[in-house]
Amino acid sequence: MARRSLWLGGVFDLIHVGHLHLLEYAASLEDLLVVAVLSDIYVRGYKSQDRPIIGQSQRAKMLASIRFVDFVYITNTSPNTQEALQLLQPSSIVFGEEGDAVRSARRIATVESASPHTKVHFLPRYNEERVSTGDIIRKIRGMLTFDKLLSSTDKKRVSKNIETGVVKLYLTPFNVSFLKREERDCFG
Fold it and tell me: From residue 181, how far is each of 9, 158, 166, 177, 184 by CA, in Å?
């Protein structure tokens, strides 16, 4: 008997618990989980020039080491296109649920026309806590700005606008507090 496969694709940059949630769910649906890692060039085309943070080869190696994943390949195209689906004919495909009914319907129609025997599954977003690669990147950037500020001020009391100017940072030798614009005015 032939083994059934589920195919899914993504960037998988800075792998986090949301990715693991998706991979574990996908692996539970069929015999084999095949993951398409979107190439660096492809990612830059639809995310930003700053992405991915981690190169395609390293992302593929990290995914291949996860126990839920059976096969990994790097691609310059979405594995969800008409052409890819006609060629691959997966048993199942999984998409993250994004709350966009029109986009979901379009995805189902594409799969049904290209690969009529392929089952389409939608997985609700991981929601035990908010997590995304973009959030992780923003958090790291904030820490780097904070560390740079600490080293340059020698922990003396300072005030400095951070990025948007909505928040101001006050440092003293013993306390660090982030204040909203209306609160910072109390400190002169």
Answer: 42, 15, 6, 13, 5
pTM: 0.72
Give the start-to-end residue ranges of the domains of the chain.
Answer: 5-124, 154-187
**pLDDT by residue for the chain (188 residues), tens digit each?**
789 999 999 999 999 999 999 999 999 999 999 999 999 999 999 888 889 999 999 999 999 999 999 999 999 998 889 999 999 999 999 998 877 889 889 999 999 999 999 999 999 877 777 777 778 878 877 766 554 554 444 333 333 444 444 444 444 433 334 433 444 344 44
- Domain 5-124 fold is Rossmann fold (3.40.50)
State the residue for tokens 């069929």: 30
